[in-house]
Amino acid sequence: MNNENNNPLNSNPTEAMPTDTNSTTNNPIDNVVAPASVEMNNTPVVESPVSPVSNVPSETVPTNPVSAPEVPQNSVSGEQSSVGIQPNVATSASQVEIPVSPSTPIPEVPGTTTSASDTNVSYDVPKKGGVGKIIIILLVLALLGVGGYFGYQYFFQKEDKEEKNSANPGDAFVLQKEDETKDYVYEADYSSAIDFDANAGACPISATSLKVPYVNLNSEDAKAINSEVKALYEQAVGKYRANVTLDNQNPCTTVKIAYRYYQNGDMASLVIAYTEKTSGSANPEFYTYNISTKTGSLAQDFDSVKSISAQASTSDEDLQTAVKNAVIEKFAKYKDNLFTINQMKSAITETPTVQANTWKEYSANLTVDAYNANMQDGTLKYYIGENNNLGFVLPKYIATTPSSTNDMFDIK
To answer: Is pLDDT at 350 greater than 80 in this prediction?
Structure first.
């Protein structure tokens, strides 16, 4: 059987790509006069004219209680009258006693009870809108509080999103390239990590052949990708370093790193294949990253990537068919009679949910099953490849050892 190229990415054409204080109140007490000979709290009281009782407005009066000794009570006659102040009677803003004659009109005041036979009429003078104002103020404060809370949440959540990728918290994040002279993704230079002669010892191989990508953006997500990739690179260098100390009795561990980079609109997709091989066939481990060159953020789910691909409106059923066709196309160079169905069943422990007539179809149906399982458990690895088409990393099945290896499948 003709084996595929050792580089898992060689099957694809592209390598590393590039209160109003001014108001006045008519106080009815101001028009009340006490005899000049009377002292209130040892203070002489000056006479002043008094207006007819009928003209006394129901306004707010001073709240300070006033006590006075007993004085003779004058009657009301003609247009002038004097009001006697009862002994030890406190006058307040809520109650004033005014002596009147039966013929004198009694002003109607809300909340008072009057009697035609009473000589002295008492009535309450309500405070103007005191309770109403308090209620209004409380409502306004409550509305301001609620509005302020939601405003705070909206503003600061928005700030958090904008500053997520900022190196300086508190500053508005501005996405930009770290090196304006280079593409969004270019080959990283980590050669300083190689501190040994890789061509010495039992394994005359060079770690300088390791190639890994670098995301040329200043966002936190880009930095995280670069950190992971560099750790992968250093892992490979460590394998080479161990090879140097081996003698001829021990096999070398071959390490390969290859990557693909695709740029479609604002989406940059990276696919990295890391392979370690000591003997026999190797099964590469793939790492996929889809990062927006407009926001600097990694795509978090498959639907967000699919929505900007050429398969945005493709149903899941049609995607499964496309995956099956991609697998069969991958095996195009192999003969249709290379294996029998029985040989596939013997070599592969898995059985496809849909039966097949050829070994290629058998293998393709197994890959579709893996696609459905990975989609369901959230482990599906995907990218946007050439011509804005979706691509997947899935197992490829064949009647050899190992019976399955990971590979890239581009949808068309």
So the answer is: yes
